[in-house]
From TrEMBL:
Signal peptide: 1-17
UniProt cross-references to InterPro entries, sorted A to Z: Pectin_lyas_fold, Pectin_lyase_fold/virulence, QRT3-like, RHGA/B-epi-like_pectate_lyase
This protein's name: Pectate lyase superfamily protein-domain-containing protein
Keywords: Lyase, Signal
Transmembrane region(s): none
Top-level taxonomic group: Eukaryota
Keyword flag Signal: yes
Organism: Echria macrotheca
Lineage: Eukaryota, Fungi, Dikarya, Ascomycota, Pezizomycotina
Residue intervals of the Rhamnogalacturonase A/B/Epimerase-like pectate lyase domain: 225-447, 588-643
Region (Disordered), start-end ranges: 93-114
GO molecular function, a single term: polygalacturonase activity
């Protein structure tokens, strides 16, 4: 019920930002004299309304009931508007629906957004803006509410607020470590990379009163409210984000404005949405994660947001409601170590803890979402409308209506728990999403895949190593079979259902739901698929539900299985944060090196690494470190980058594509043990056509996934200020080749002796500029580039390797190639083809460098091995590889997109050739290719597997196994045969050595010292004839 007659009139006027009446004007509407000296009366003779009886605390000076009533009316009207905006936004989420543009209408932007969005009741006035007057009213109401309700966290009774005490140092090293970082390629030499919110006035004591000092200066009747006894955490946090320069409204992206926004332990009350700018890492104390607590009356859609809307009635670059950032280019963000608590918020009812829109190189980690447990709550933890990739891990969701209400092209989620959440996950839309190590307890629905609108545009999910306990419906799906409105494919691998009534409910149109019940409410799923599956080039099952046994490579799984899953889970390790270490355990690279983007830091960087392998942690201060030759990262290294510090290849040693040279070599062949790296960017300065940006040689300890690993590290070739490979030097070319735009030979290589653990690693050759040239241009136009990199990600490892949340984009030969590789799990992987192809056709401009690496494709220009585009994925002569989801996209034919609706941007997307066994790919999604797969010379057409009859017409296969990889059976227990049989077994192995060594076509007899020995100065590290490596 509205508080006064004024509000009905206000509601009838459409507005982009609610502008509340002033105190003085509101009083005039009540026919009261407002000409007193200070413009306000002490009280009303006869109040027309009272929202509720409130006692004005004595320590608020001369605040009167009349003033409170006036303030409350303003607040109530604003909250009504917030509720209206939030409900409208939730009713019409952005789904990345596309319609093809007319020929010649291409604009400078990312391929996935180069379509005009179909109208779906587009919401224009959807971004609530706090005005100065409203903040003053909120200040007064919040203060009185907090003191009268006597329920502010950390406060007992009517506490008298004294001056802000000097903050005590926390125990987390990040709070006290010295700060020396800077962005030398930026325009502001004084840019502040690290910002502690308490240095900007945030108190974190659980008490927030917004703008009371400024309110008292304009409303002198409110006495006793001074800077000494008021604090506004919301404004202080916003000030920390917006210091001097930031990439926010009017800036689509920047590589020179990044910063760390740090929160010490405490409780920070938040009254309105905090918008997080591009390139920012928002990090809390890892030892005592701070709480961000929304106030009783909250103004905004999410407590935190990376998805701001202008609300100006315009359309953005992606054709949808005008947002600050382009949803498929909202890169480089990080939020970790928080509790986000909305339990005390009563208005608006519809709200989220996090309004989240992201693309690659983004992550959420170590966050607890605490929502209202009321039966009718409408609170959502994460509301993620659209985007193009991302990574989330180690999240807990407690109570609320929905845990994650999300849509994204492809995403990786690991180690999530949902407790007492009505619906754990509701998908708005997606093409592919991997959910690993998920626990859902006491929910009505685990995964709702009906997409809200019922359009069925949820492509696929893969649920791995997960548990559902006391759940009514594990998976709710709109269409498991039809491509007319959208088919949804489902893979469940190693899943336990305990206390589950229905594992799958199919809810299609007007037909009655079809339930797949769980007998006895308990079910252990080894492997189950819903959708189209293939073995070799033959359709194994068109649309049905298939359940079967499968096995896993022993070295890829963990020792522990606390949930009693059917199989041991695949190994994982959360990103290390060194919570038990102090700032004195870190060594600053800038104590020895410049990092100024000009000075050659090769020798000093190498020395810092060599000198600090005995327990010290190398801290790479923000900056750009020029490397003119190979730098070796020794075994035992621990490296932490500050806000994605940059290592840049430069100079003559990286110029020859026929003799590639490594910029950063991780370990030496034969190394086994500890090594970890995080928060770094590997890039270049100027053309470096012979650069291999990262070579990985270290193996993990047995069954210790992540003992040698890399988290939140990315390769970036061109597209950024300082690289000399931007649209200024390398504009999009539709004919010819600019030799000065050859950026690299390979982005990453895991060698045969290596074995890596990767989480959230993005390998990107620039298709556009990352830096907005005019940060006040709110139309967010991006300019494309033609930058050439020969190879994406080459994996030759035969040792256990885990690739979680990786992507590789825009290379000439291939994006991923598994060559004679084995013992690997990857998910979800994502690719895009180079926008300029087939002009030139691959392997140009690196034709003369073909053969510089094992397995280089030759592009013979046949129907099955065409030469129009590079390969998205090649799996050659490999075994025991499990790819848990892949989104592979081809959006362009020489910068035009007419090819997308017809799926003829390229002829064949992937190649599987001469493989041996144990290879499976679940939930393969392709867009833009005529054929999804070349299976040993046999093609699998995309049109046969069309998943949706709407643009962009993606195709989907729920399970594919190439020739020789018939679905493996369950793993058998290892037994020791009697001695009498042992000799027969050895003889049989020796007589079938070639077949038994499927992966190793040139196995050596290790019992024969003549053939198994290596030359002097070399050590054997494997079983192939060539597996001898130098001791140097």
């Amino acid at each position: 019920m509205r508080s006064c007659v004024l509000l009905a009139a206000l509601a009838a006027v459409p507005s982009l930002a609610f502008t509340p009446p002033s105190f003085e004007n509101l009083l005039k509407l009540f026919n009261r004299d407002s000409t007193k000296e200070h413009g306000l009366l002490h009280d009303f003779k006869k109040p027309l309304f009272i929202r509720r009886n409130e006692t004005i605390p004595s320590n608020l000076g001369n605040v009167t009931q009349s003033q409170y009533i006036a303030a409350q009316a303003i607040v109530d009207e604003a909250l009504d508007r917030v509720e209206e905006i939030n409900r409208a936004r939730f009713a019409s989420p952005s789904r990345n629906h596309y319609a093809p543009r007319e020929r010649g209408q291409q604009r400078g932007q990312r391929g996935k957004t180069a379509f005009t969005a179909q109208s779906q009741n587009e919401l224009q006035a959807d971004h609530f803006k706090m005005t100065k007057e409203l903040k003053d009213a909120v200040a007064l109401v919040s203060r009185i509410d907090a003191l009268n309700d006597n329920q502010t966290p950390g406060v007992s009774g009517n506490k008298t607020f004294g001056p802000v005490e000097k903050r005590a140092a926390g125990t987390f090293w990040m709070e006290t470590i010295a700060r020396k970082g800077a962005w030398p390629w930026g325009k502001n030499p004084n840019h502040k990379v690290f910002r502690n919110v308490k240095d900007y006035g945030a108190k974190g004591d659980g008490v927030t009163v917004s703008r009371l000092e400024r309110a008292s200066s304009r409303l002198p009747q409110i006495k006793g409210l001074t800077a000494a006894n008021t604090q506004d955490d919301t404004d202080a946090i916003t000030k920390a984000i917006a210091e001097k320069d930031e990439c926010s409204g009017g800036c689509y992206g920047s590589t020179t404005m990044g910063a760390i926004i740090y929160f010490p332990a405490g409780t920070y009350l938040i009254q309105n949405t905090i918008e997080i700018s591009y390139g920012m890492q928002v990090i809390g104390d890892a030892n005592n994660p701070p709480t961000l607590k929304s106030t009783k009356s909250f103004f905004g859609t999410g407590v935190l947001s990376t998805d701001a809307y202008w609300g100006d009635g315009e359309k953005g670059e992606d054709g949808r409601d005008h947002e600050y950032y382009i949803n498929t280019a909202n890169f480089h963000r990080q939020i970790r170590n928080f509790v986000i608590d909305t339990t005390q918020t009563t208005r608006p009812k519809a709200m989220a803890a996090l309004h989240y829109q992201v693309a690659q190189a983004t992550s959420l980690q170590n966050i607890v979402f605490k929502l209202s447990s009321d039966a009718g709550t409408e609170q959502i933890a994460i509301y993620a409308e659209n985007g193009s990739g991302g990574f989330m891990s180690d999240l807990s969701f407690i109570a609320g209506k929905i845990g994650i209400w999300g849509g994204n092209q492809q995403f990786t989620a690991q180690r999530l728990s949902f407790i007492n959440v009505r619906t754990a996950v509701e998908m708005i839309w997606d093409w592919g999403w991997m959910w690993k190590s998920i626990t859902i307890e006491n929910s009505h629905i685990g995964f709702n895949l009906t997409s809200g609108s019922g359009d069925g545009h949820v492509g696929s999910i893969t649920v791995v190593d997960s548990v559902f306990r006391n759940v009514d419906i594990a998976v709710l799906v709109a269409n498991a079979n039809s491509s007319d409105t959208g088919r949804t494919s489902i893979s469940m691998d190693n899943v336990l259902l305990d206390g589950v009534t229905t594992w799958l409910r199919e809810q299609s149109g007007k037909n009655a739901p079809k339930d797949n019940a769980v007998p006895g409410n308990h079910k252990a799923i080894d492997m189950l698929t819903v959708g189209r599956s293939y073995v070799d080039s033959k359709l194994d099952d068109e649309k049905g539900i298939k359940e079967f046994a499968s096995s896993r490579v022993d070295d890829l799984v963990t020792w522990n299985n606390p949930d009693g899953l059917p199989k041991l889970p695949y190994g994982e390790r959360p990103k290390p944060q060194y919570e038990d270490r102090s700032a004195s355990d870190f060594v600053h690279v800038k104590d020895s090196c410049k990092g100024d983007g000009v000075t050659d830091d090769t020798a000093c960087f190498q020395k810092v690494l060599n000198d600090n392998i005995n327990g010290k942690i190398v801290f790479v201060d923000a900056g750009t470190y020029i490397l003119t030759d190979t730098v070796d990262v020794p075994l035992g290294s621990h490296i932490v980058g500050e806000n994605w510090a940059q290592l840049a290849a430069y100079g003559p040693k990286f110029q020859d594509p026929k003799q590639p040279r490594v910029m950063l070599r991780i370990g030496r062949p034969g190394d086994v043990g500890l090594l970890d790296m995080q928060d770094l960017v590997f890039t270049s300065k100027g053309p470096t056509p012979g650069a291999v940006f990262v070579e990985w040689n270290v193996r993990n300890y047995k069954k210790q996934a992540g003992s040698a690993g890399m988290w939140d590290c990315h390769v970036r070739v061109g597209g950024a200020i300082g690289t000399g490979l931007t649209s200024l030097e390398c504009p999009p070319s539709r004919s010819g080749i600019n030799p000065n735009c050859q950026g690299g030979s390979m982005m990453m290589h895991i060698t045969r002796q290596g074995g890596a653990y990767l989480e959230n690693v993005w390998l990107w050759t620039a298709d556009h500029d990352l830096d907005d040239p005019a940060t006040v241009d709110n139309m967010n136009k991006m300019v494309q580039t033609s930058v050439y990199n020969a190879r994406g990600f080459l994996i030759e490892s035969i040792n256990p390797t885990w690739l979680y949340g990786t992507a590789s984009e825009h290379s000439v030969f291939y994006q991923y190639q598994f060559y004679k590789a084995a013992n690997l799990v990857a998910g979800i992987i994502q690719t895009e083809q180079a926008y300029y192809q087939p002009t030139p056709k691959p392997p140009e401009p690196f034709k003369d460098a073909v053969g510089s690496f094992n397995g280089d494709p030759t592009f013979p220009c046949t129907d099955t091995e065409p030469c129009d585009e590079g390969w998205a994925l090649r799996v050659i002569e490999s075994s025991n590889i499990h790819i848990i989801g892949a989104g592979l996209y081809s959006w362009f034919d020489t910068y035009t997109q007419d090819c997308v609706p017809e799926s003829n941007c390229q002829k064949v997307m992937t190649e599987f050739k001469n493989n041996h066994g144990g290879i499976t790919i679940n939930n393969l999604i392709t867009i833009g290719a005529t054929n999804m797969i070349n299976a040993d010379g046999k093609l699998i057409p995309s049109k046969d597997n069309l998943a949706v009859n709407a643009h962009p017409f993606w195709s989907d296969i729920v399970s594919y196994s190439p020739s020789g990889s018939a679905r493996p059976g369950p793993a058998q227990p290892v037994t020791t045969p009697p001695d009498a049989e042992l000799g027969d077994i050895v003889d049989r192995i020796n007589s079938n050595l070639h077949e038994d060594c499927m992966v190793f076509p040139e196995c050596v007899d290790m019992d024969n010292p003549v053939v198994s020995s290596c030359a002097a100065g070399y050590t054997r590290v494997g079983y192939d004839r060539g597996d001898c490596v130098s001791d140097l």
